[in-house]
Amino acid sequence: MKVLANDGISKAGEQALKNAGIEILDNRVAQDHVINFINENNVDVLLVRSATKVRQELIDACPGLKIIGRGGIGMDNIDVEYAIEKGLYVINTPTASSKSVAELVFGHFFSLARFLHESNRLMPLEGETHFDAMKKSFSKAYELSGKTLGVIGFGSIGQEVVKMGISLGMKVIVLTRKPKTKVLSLEFFDGQTVNFEITSTNDMDAFLKEADFISINTPKTNEYIIDTPQFEKMKDGVYIVNTARGGVMNEVALIDFIESGKVAGAALDVFEKEPNPEVLLLMNPALSLSPHVGGNTVDAQEKIGVELAEQIIKIKETIQ
């Protein structure tokens, strides 16, 4: 069995595959050449992240392909149903990067609440000449403890965001299409575990009026979850972080509500026009920005690689 990890795989995942007698091709093939490469090299497994697209054309043109794997949660760059109809196995790693994404959410929340995104820009330029002025302008900061964290989405990432919010002493509310209840376990360094039963709401208006900090953790959507009507119903001075997908929040409307003061600050790890975000977003001092790196930690990549390898090895045993 041959595996093309076109968007990369961790050393641990690569080693697990090699130990199982599976060949890894370490090539990085441009999208336009993927089909030819797969066919010319008799590739059985195509592993991707978000860069490589696996559409119907590729699936039809590569009859020898047996498995398509996505390192991560979202599968919007793969025509999953069509692949399954054609008899291919489609695998992903829905929980491996959840903690990494959730930590980035709070990295942005802390940056926004303490003006770190701005002070890191300005200190090298004006720290020597305007130190006292900056100290004064960045003094109206907030603690997260005691504030209300609103989480949109209750999948594996949303659950990790909720758990981190609880650990910081935040009040937590969750918004989903249909109310659901989950028991979340917080595990501590000394072996203690504390369980919290969380029930989500589908009342968006009440959710928006109550939340001080909002984290968007949903799959890709066909329309905005957060648009002008939703911004209007939020608390004055709300903070928002989007690590989900570009297109779940109206970025143009976001800028308008930042300028009006309704939104105190926002963070974007994903963008509607990725990988070419709007310059107005990139230059706005009220935004904390990162280049779609939510799951890009050494820890998450190790877990992703190992999980993909384990699934491939199991499928190999089934089909042989």
UniProtKB/TrEMBL annotation:
It holds the Pfam family 2-Hacid_dh. Signal peptide: none annotated. InterPro entries: D-iso_2-hydroxyacid_DH_PdxB (IPR050418), D-isomer_2_OHA_DH_cat_dom (IPR006139), D-isomer_DH_CS (IPR029753), D-isomer_DH_NAD-bd (IPR006140), NAD(P)-bd_dom_sf (IPR036291). SUPFAM superfamilies: Formate/glycerate dehydrogenase catalytic domain-like, NAD(P)-binding Rossmann-fold domains. Keywords: NAD, Oxidoreductase. Residues 11-316 form the D-isomer specific 2-hydroxyacid dehydrogenase catalytic domain. Residues 107-294 form the D-isomer specific 2-hydroxyacid dehydrogenase NAD-binding domain. One of its GO terms (molecular function) is oxidoreductase activity, acting on the CH-OH group of donors, NAD or NADP as acceptor. Belongs to the D-isomer specific 2-hydroxyacid dehydrogenase family. This is D-3-phosphoglycerate dehydrogenase.
